[in-house]
Amino acid sequence: MLKLLAVLFLVADLSAAQSPFDGTWLNKGVAQPPLGTASYSLTDETLRCSCAIGNVEINPDGYDHKVPDTAYWDTLNAQAVDAHALVLIAKKSGRTIFTEIDSVSSDATTLTQMVKDTTEAATVTIETQSHRVDARPTGANTISGVWKAFKASRSLNGSLIKYTCTKDSFSAESPLGERYTANFDGNFYPVEDDPGHTTVSAKRIDARTVELTSMRNGKVVSVSRLSAATDGNTIHAVFENKEANSKREFDFEKQK
Question: How far is 222 from 219, CA to CA, in rounded Å?
């Protein structure tokens, strides 16, 4: 979910005529595997994980348990299907935000995670594959251990974004309904249809570069810098995740 919102903050309009940013774009960055590693420890009584959902410890009994409140979830439900599969369901105020099915290969060396993000009207599916980077703990469920992602993919409806820009403002809209229009005045504007209540502010750097700052609950969560290619077919993005203290570079490819 957090990767889907980041797409909305990478857009600019820097000309009085039609902007080279106008149109529909494919975000190539969503195919990049997550940075860092994820760790899990699963027994009949306890699931401990340090992963995309945060640092969590709950009973994997199939019931909703309170977890540290974030912009997108406040409870987590975990249940081991068998020795090779785990189901996670995250909710916010009782509404299901995502469902994740984690499956471990028979040799316990590959983890496949299939996420159904139901934040919006249409479901976005995200698949991530990871290699084990440590020895499997003796007698533990096969998901237990440390994993490093090597492959990721996302459904098309979670990879496209439409931009419309003028000399005074820019707009972004995803196929899922998330959208915003912000003026180049330094103020923060709300992202509509975002359950995390994100706001975004734009700063013009030069004729082909803009810096966008996103905020939630009064805290800056990301800063993005976007550079438009002279041919109008690609946009190079540098995205800084302030919450995870990480940086990524990737491109947008024009579709139409």
Answer: 9
